[in-house]
Predict the structure of ABC transporter permease.
Amino acid sequence: MTCEAPQGTVWRSYGTDRRSTRTVRVRVSAALVVAAVLAVLLVPPLVQLDQQAVDLHAKLLPPSWSHPFGTDDLGRDLLLRCVYGLRVSLLVGVAAALTATLIGTAVGAAAGALGGWADRALMRLVDTLSSVPHLLLGIFIVSMFRPGVWPVVVSVALTHWLSTARIVRAEVLSLRARPYIDAAVSGGASRWRVAIRHLLPGVLPQAALAAVLMVPHAMWHESALSFLGLGLPTHLASLGNLIQGARSSLLAGQWWPTLFPGLLIIVPTLAIAGLAGAWRERINPRRRSELML
């Protein structure tokens, strides 16, 4: 009796601590995401400065009250340029994630619902494209267009739908084994009617989760392409462009032109990933493996 009580107490304490930690993580992640969105929406109209305004007398100023993030090598305010860069990253991330999810859901649902040779052909296509590194394939795609936002969106979308297709196909195959699907087929429902009325609604939560998890990957991909000079034009504010242009300043000892754009890449993407992880545990609590995109 005296040995069992402490064990039960420890087990309950561990479970409570785990739930508390998860709650704190979700709240912090949500607060960071909201702060990023509010910064993108409110900072440009509230800060009456031109992000392209050059002031060589104020170049490479350290962070201060007048310039919280300091200035770059042309005297431009880094806070405003980082916010504009974050806006571009969020735009590219959300647009590319939605496009890739639509493509992946369509391919995965068709493969799982049709089966047979269609399933094998579509999955071989997915396997073939997956064998090519995302960044290399993205460079090939974006190099066919002029630098801009939408070529980057197309490049990221066409390289990130593959995992969604696998997830949706696996979910469709699982749903096809359910009794109500057999009942619908026995009742005379066509294959397409079963897919649209029964299978597709069942995979929407997983597809939506894949879309949310894809946003950080798309933001990192856009930043990498811009850092390599293949994304947005260099005169536009992009987090990748800002880091690429700050390399010489970092070697000279000015750390702020690199630190703040880097933080605006890392922190929002980790916050979005944290919210997506909590969502995954809610819709599928028994599955603890990571959803790799």
Summary: The radius of gyration is 24 Å.
